[in-house]
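User: Hi! I'm a student and our assignment asks us to look at how structure tokens line up with a sequence. Could you show me two examples?

Assistant: Happy to help. In each example below, the sequence comes first and the structure tokens follow. Example one:
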Amino acid sequence: MREELKLENIRSNLIRLEETIIFSLIERAQFAQNKIIYRTNGIPIKNYSGSFMLYLLSGTEKLHAMVRRYTAPDEHPFTEVPKEQLLSPLAYEWPIKKTEININAEILETYIDKIIPLICKKEDDGNYGSSSVNDISTLQAFSKRIHYGKYVAEAKFQDSSLEYTKLIKASDSGAIMQRLTDKKVEEHLLERVSLKAQTYGQEPDVKNPVFKINPEIIKKIYADYIIPFTKKVELLYLLERTD
């Protein structure tokens, strides 16, 4: 098995991404919801019809695409990106099967409609640029973590290929999802995320802890969105998995 597919290496990467996500959420939570940045033409932009945040996201992704960001198996754009690149293509053998699976549209909608109201005050503080920049880094972290489910699925497939192949051929999504789910692992993950959120988000030197963002909210985001989305990617990947 390739190094990228060893479960200990996958687990290490996922744990590192937890910290990226927690810090990104803490940074975004310092600003208000600023709903106008998500509204089509809420902030008029010449020769563009869309939201302010999507305009910045699109521009960011175009630049990142030109330096090969979206040629990596765990990187997926939210917007349409150019094919031309400033750097020559790398000779790289993918450790997983190539697919077109990309659930960023669903991640984006959930982030704006569900997550922003959870972490931000229902106000407009005028910090539109800062809010959008933090949105972009948070969305990219979410996407990377969730689509890393392809690595998880491939590792699990290689570990139990006969069992998974039988279920895949039968298109038994329910049984595949049941096999992918490990409640003990998920509970441990949620407790670890909650502890990290308490540690990183707490103001120091106070008798009564004051958090920049409630750790239970970050735990809820993982439980209600990040874990289910990751398992959805795993399922979609396996349903397309063929030798």
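Example two works the same way, sequence first and then tokens:
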Amino acid sequence: MFDRFKPPQTPLLVIHREALERNLTNMQQRCDAGGVRLRAHGKTHKCSRLGRMQVARGAVGLCAQTVGEAEAFVAGSVGNVLVTAPVAPWAAPRLAALAKTAHIGVVADTKAQIARLGSAARAAGVVLDLVVDLDLGTHRTGAYPQQAVELARAAAETEGLNFAGVQAYLGHLQHVTENDARREADEEGIRALAAVVADLRAAGLEPGVVTGGGTGTHVFDIASGVFTEIQAGSYAVMDVEYGACAAPGGGDWPFEPAMYVAATVVSAHHKTHVTCDAGFKAMAVDGPPAQVVGGAAPGSLWRPMGDEHGAIIHPFFVPAMRAGGSDPILAAKAIQAADENPDFPWPKDAPKPGDVVWLQPGHCDPTMNLYDAVHVLGEDDHVERWPIDARRVST
């Protein structure tokens, strides 16, 4: 793919379609075999076209992290959406309006949120599915398990709402590097979740939906017998951060990298590195650095050099760069010393100005959010431009 496709401009976000389709099929088959529904998390891709592919393969619908994402997915013909984070007061009427044309679920972790959502639903003449959001250790949103029955009863008694079930997303476990540690922590959370489900049933509040899980724990979540839905998202395209973790269950990851950023070398005045046009604005840097996967010598590293630029560091300079740490003055001196050292020849395998370098993002979700569209490349060299229509939607 890297040798075949010549991007019309860079930086350009590219998805390898066949790899994407294999990932989508693989996760759907895993959920089907385990008897659980897949509710793919749309926050990864924010693209209703891709979301429709997931639904066509058998996903019950999509997750959305924000009301803006939910609105974009519904406008893009995704008919079943669960908003997986508690929403601000201004968002309740917008979610209720969406429920006039699609099946909408929303989570809540307080009685005040439940009352507000019920009021908005009644005003719009609709019914919203209400899922109680539980905190089993991530400590971002969610009520503690001992509050579940009280909140579920409030939802069941609120006109305009249908108590649908509970959500337990163990986000803090998804990138635990070591497989056994991740499995043990996930199983502890699942035991706590099973106890909540038992309490709800004893109180006559059957949770028809028990939703959560993720790419990093999907094997354990599917096998648990507790979850009815899996909210995996990153499996569709993968990234460096997941690749650095052991696959759940051991062995190789069952999903393959499918998303890349193409960058062009724009300057090559140093022996140590060349400069490309992909910097902070082209690549999210909240996770590990992007990985160079094509167009440069094996072992080359990408590092941001500002808003618009990145360095493609030649392998011979990597040890010296790492020895200097993050000190920019030491790095600048080392680069100049290498340029002036006749014992360091100019690398013959370094990219040249105009060459395209291919990068796998460190973190897929926020990288995708930086682009208006993704170019989807098939094996037959056919390219389609898919809008990232749920990108940073706020009004």
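Here is something you could point out in your write-up. The CA atoms of residues 23 and 236 lie 5 Å apart.
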